[in-house]
C-alpha cells in the first residue's frame, strides 16, 4: 500500500512514462505537470501549497501520485498527496454496482492507513463528499488520527471514482494534531480535471 510521501526537492525537468526498472520518484518543473495516462493537470501551486514529489508506480504512467506541502515550522507535517490510477477492478466487474466498487476502494485505502500504525482512532466516519470540480457524482471522505514515528497526526482520506470508467482519484491529507485542518478541497479546485477521461481497462494489484 502506498504511504504518505516525504517531500523532495524539485528539479527543472519534466517526466514522461518510464520503463518498469525506472519507476519511482520524479521531479518536474512543468507547470502544470500533466498525468501521462489520465491527462489531469497539476499546477505548481495549489490551495496555498507547493507541489513536491511526483511518483510513478507503473511502467506506462497510468498510476501516478502528486504531493503538495504547506510551509510549517520545524518538523510539523502538512501534506496533501493526490493519487490518480486505474481501479483494481474493471468497470464491468460483476461483483457489485459502481458505488459498491468505489466503496471497496475507500475501505481498502482506509485499511492501509490503519495497518502498522499506533493509536488509530476514528475522528469522522466515512461520508459522501463533493466530486472534484466539474466532475459528476460524489466521493467519500473520512478522518483518522494516529501516531507515526512518535508524532500524533490527523489524516483525511478521500476517494472518488470517475463515473462510467475505471479511473480513481484518491487524496491523503495529513497534518500535525493540534493544528488547523488542511484545506485539501482547495487543492482539488486548483487541479485541471479532464472533461473526458481516457478509457482504461487495465487492472492493478491491490494497494
Name the helicity range.
Answer: 10-25%
Q: What share of the residues does DSSP label as strand, in percent?
A: 35-45%
CATH architecture tag: 3-Layer(aba) Sandwich
> What low-confidence regions span 5 or more consecutive residues with pLDDT below 50?
1-22, 201-207
Top-tier CATH class = Alpha Beta
Principal-axis shape equals: globular
Number of contiguous helices: 2
Alpha carbon gap, first and last residue: 4 Å
- What's the structural domain tally? 1
SSE run: EEEEEEEHEEEEH
Mean pLDDT: 80
Instruction: Give me the Rg, rounded.
Output: 16 Å
Characterize the biggest β-sheet: 9 strands, antiparallel
DSSP, total strands? 11
Quick take:
With 207 residues, the chain is mainly β. The protein contains two helices and eleven strands, in the order E-E-E-E-E-E-E-H-E-E-E-E-H.
Which tags fit this structure?
single chain; 207 residues; mainly beta; Protein Transport Mog1p, Chain A; two-stranded antiparallel sheet; 2 helices; 12% helix
Structural notes for this entry:
Strands 1, 4, 5, 6, 7, 8, 9, 10 and 11 form a nine-stranded antiparallel sheet that branches. This protein has a two-stranded antiparallel ribbon with strand order 2-3. It has one domain: Protein Transport Mog1p, Chain A. It has helices at 98-114, 184-190, and strands at residues 24-26, 33-34, 41-42, 45-46, 49-56, 64-69, 78-86, 118-130, 138-148, 151-161, 167-176. A hairpin with an 8-residue loop joins strand 6 and strand 7. The chain is built from two helices and eleven strands, in the order E-E-E-E-E-E-E-H-E-E-E-E-H. It is mainly beta and 207 residues long. Helix content is 12%, strand content 37%.
